[in-house]
Amino acid sequence: MTGEQTYFQTDVGKIVLGDSRRLLNQIDDESVNLIVTSPPFALVRKKDYGNESADDYLEWFKPFATHFRRVLNDSGSLVIDIGGSWMPGTPTRSLYHFKLLIMLCEEFGFHLAQEFYWWNPAKLPTPAEWVTVRRLRVKDAVNIVWWLSKSPWPKADNRRVLQPYSDAMKHLIRNGYRAMKRPSGHDISVNFGRDNGAAIPPNLLAIPNTESNSYYQRYCKDHGIKPHPARYPSELPEFFVRLTTDCDDLVVDPFAGSCVTGEVCERLGRRWICIERDAEYLRGARGRFEPDASAQTSASTDSYRIARPGVLWNGPPSDLLPVDGGRRRRPRHQAVGSES
To answer: What three-state secondary structure class fits 90?
Structure first.
């Protein structure tokens, strides 16, 4: 990669200031093992970092897709964290992120290795108009993460990302398991009760986005820098870096923001390139590579639980659902479904 403006560099990686559509063109063909990124979402409200509308999103993304396909090697992966969006003025969802997936697979030849769902337990109840005011929808707390690959066989090993056994599984291992066929038809063998030390994780990633006193935040505050407003937690890219790459593999983030991906790769011994066009965000990103930054710790909570849907169900409701679907906003003191 030559001719770029290197903003910051370590022994194994670099932050590059500029437009990734131009800078990706300087990366050699089939030299990248993993692209993991969170591009600007197609949100109704515009953000400081800039984002395209849902209608224009696919055309905007196509040049990036062309570069992604070219620079990835045959065993490489493309991981895209992408949040959903709402249709303007109505409590209905945009399909833009599903259309993006279909375009990447059908027009650019990518394969869907697996879809993941990043659940943020700390997500606020948004969008407020539909969730807390009119009470028509539940809060939107899950991002879709598309794990795509250049070939049907990207390199990966789920033993790199194992999780602790649940209490129920520990009890089963301790007390033994009687092999039997389940009602679903699955024939569970005696091997199900074997203690393998840890559990294979699901494709639901429970990661709170609650960075309030991290080294990055303190660095930005001490230097008068506005933090990037849409950072993903380091555990998200780390999951895929561990799952799909080896030491010295090359990882690229073309929408780097505050360079969370670079921080993870630096710590895990992967070569990395982070590309970001906003120099102000990169001022804060340098703080991630300060000597003291590696001492920061993750959230102390080991696991998160979500209540099953029926926990608070206690009989039929006394009011009726709004016949207009919530089109007319009701006074706050009036129950959403009341006909009075």
So the answer is: coil
The DSSP code sequence of 111-149 is EEEEEEEEE-TT----SHIIIIIS--S----EEEEEEEE
Task: Look up residue 44 and give its DSSP letter.
Answer: S
The answer for residues whose C-beta is within 8 angstroms of residue 22's C-beta and 6 or more apart is none
Q: Amino acid letter at 159?
A: R
149 token code pair: 């690959």
Listed residue (234, 239, 267, 265) closest to 252, CA to CA: 265
Q: How far apart, in whole angstroms, are the C-alpha atoms of residue 22 and residue 31? A: 17
Alpha helix stretches (DSSP H) within 44-130? 57-71, 96-106, 128
Which residues touch 188 (CB under 8 Å, ≥6 apart)? 177, 179, 180, 181, 182
Tens of pLDDT, residue by residue over 182-214, are 676 666 665 666 777 888 999 999 999 887 668
Catalytic residues, by residue number, are 38-39, 81
Q: Are 172 and 205 within 8 A, CB to CB?
A: no
